[in-house]
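ok so for the tutorial part 2 we go from a plain amino acid sequence to predicted structure tokens. step 1 is just haveing the sequence, like this:
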Amino acid sequence: MRPEQNTLPEGDVKDEQEIREPKFYRVILHNDDYTTMEFVIEILIVVFHKPAAEATRIMLDVHKKGKGICGVYHYDIAATKVTQVHALARQREFPLKCSLEEA
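step 2 — the prediction. this is what the tokens look like for a chain of 103 residues:
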């Protein structure tokens, strides 16, 4: 009699964990009545490494639509960027709000 091919030696456990891709998150800047457009562009260039033209486009979305998407990242990176934006805004005394949402 031939042993089944799927049986494992005594004591071995078959690992049936499902491997999932990590989730992505959108980082969003929100409009307010005090933060200058120039500062928003600076944030987009310094924190998000956007070229000036793209930073201007995103800033205009923030200004006209109330919010603008800065990028899509894994959670740890997105959360770090939100923290960096809030720290820089506090240093310059702007109430700029930045958040993240699942993409």
